[in-house]
Amino acid sequence: LTNSLAAESNEIVQHGAALGLGLAAMATGNEDICEKLRNIMYMDSAVAGEAAGIAMGLVMLGTANPAAIDSMIKYAHDTQHEKIIRGIAIGLSLIMYGQ
Fold this sequence. Notes:
The protein is mainly alpha-helical. The chain is 74% helix and 0% strand. The chain has helices at 2-7, 11-24, 31-42, 46-59, 66-78, 82-95. Helix 4 (46-59) runs parallel beside helix 6 (82-95).
């Protein structure tokens, strides 16, 4: 999934790969996977960025990771895509789950 995420230029495939990766690594707190998903989100593609925000929340589920929270909030302020902002909002709620 990580290879498909990085190598693919089609945003629909990136969307599926990001969500699949988020589910496969759910609640692991893996910083490397989170960084790869962050790079997809920073590409500013509405479809793939929304999935990357959700997937980051799945990977960091319940960790309250301050670095992930900070980067997501900052990017939510920078982007103009409502879909990405929505994905970040869901991702942030997943990160804070149980806290």
